[in-house]
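Aim 2 progress update. The chain analyzed this quarter is reproduced below.
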Amino acid sequence: MTYRMVNGKVETPEGCEINVAYHCNLGCASCSHLSPAFTRSLADPETIARDLDVLARSFRAQFVKVLGGEPLLHPRLVEILHAVRASGIAPRILVCTNGILLPRAGEDFWAAVDEVEISVYPGRELGREQRERVEARAAEHGVTLTVAHYSHFRYSYSEHGTDDDHLVRRIWTTCQIAHVWRCHTVYEGHFFTCPQSVFIPQVLADRDDIWADALPLADDPGFAQRLLDHLRRPEPLRACRNCMGSVGRLTPHEQRTRRDFRVPQQHTTEELADRHFLTVLEDTPDADDGCAAAPATLLPSPSLRKRS
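Predicted structure tokens:
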């Protein structure tokens, strides 16, 4: 299924994303949202509520994914979750977290979310008692838990980028983030095809061009068509000059400090590209990227389901 226009709204077969905390309590090398490069930075709940209310008049998603950085670092996270629900933009709310702070989450958090996706990294697993506490809370509130263990990352961006237009186009057309997972991102009054086009310009100090790949949100009769055209655009984004898309070289997971996070990316796109996997994706767009240590484990709740 691709995008379609239904009753004046653009419908996507996937979801949309909001990043509520741009920093993280981990420093994963090659983090796709470049979180280790950011100091403490939180999204404004009122801005998120306003943006989703506007977007919901022209856009319908299957879910909204709330993430970061680490979303549980946001002190007003529950307020944000209520704003997502109130917007009516999607029937389900997912929170994507590394899980470290999850045992501390209160009843109000569990009551406000439909699914929690936990990304587990080597050496950062919850203890048995903590895991059982989380599973019990999820079951009690009808929340589905999805747990995925990751042993590797792919380089997410290049500090030096490339001037090779053909390579940029190949990276864009094979990008699972934009075209398979469709991680469309709402950020400060704008709609972005992917989170990388939000964060790469900021990390590379290209602040004047942060909006180069964005569509301003608007409440007018023509916005839905502009949004559909934006989603169907054949041309690469400006950020694709530095983004590795889905074809960065595979590298073992490691933790890095903010000071040295950018060091491994001090190469050109050509140097960081996995040419073999690029060819694989041109034949099989949804091929496994090799980052997960095992298939994700789905722990559906046996109790009542969340409202839609």
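The CA atoms of residues 201 and 209 lie 7 Å apart. The first strand starts at residue 4 and ends at 6. These observations will guide the mutagenesis experiments scheduled for the next reporting period.
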